[in-house]
Amino acid sequence: MPKATALSEDQLQRALHDLPGWSVAAGKLHKEFTFADFTAAFGFMTKVAIEANTLDHHPEWCNVWNKVVIDLVTHSAGDRISDLDVTLAKKIEKLIER
Fold this sequence. Notes:
The protein is α+β, with helices and mostly antiparallel strands. It has three helices and four strands; from the N terminus they run H-E-E-H-E-E-H. Strands 1-2-4-3 form a four-stranded antiparallel sheet, with helices on one face. Helix 2 (38-55) packs antiparallel against helix 3.
């Protein structure tokens, strides 16, 4: 697995421009998703888990009924947002588009 590279502030702002609804919260790439019900939310989490596992990069997340909150940060990059977080966020966005 290639080493993750922490993003500069400029790189982070450019990445956010391409990630609708994502923001930085508590130093992490953050987004909240709402679904029709628990089954849809859990199904989404299953799809994210498969993508995350292929990257060997796992989100911090929480699910309560129809809501899923995802936070992404790279511990091996000094607990900063990295290119790997952006890659996973883009993969997550593609799951929503389906």
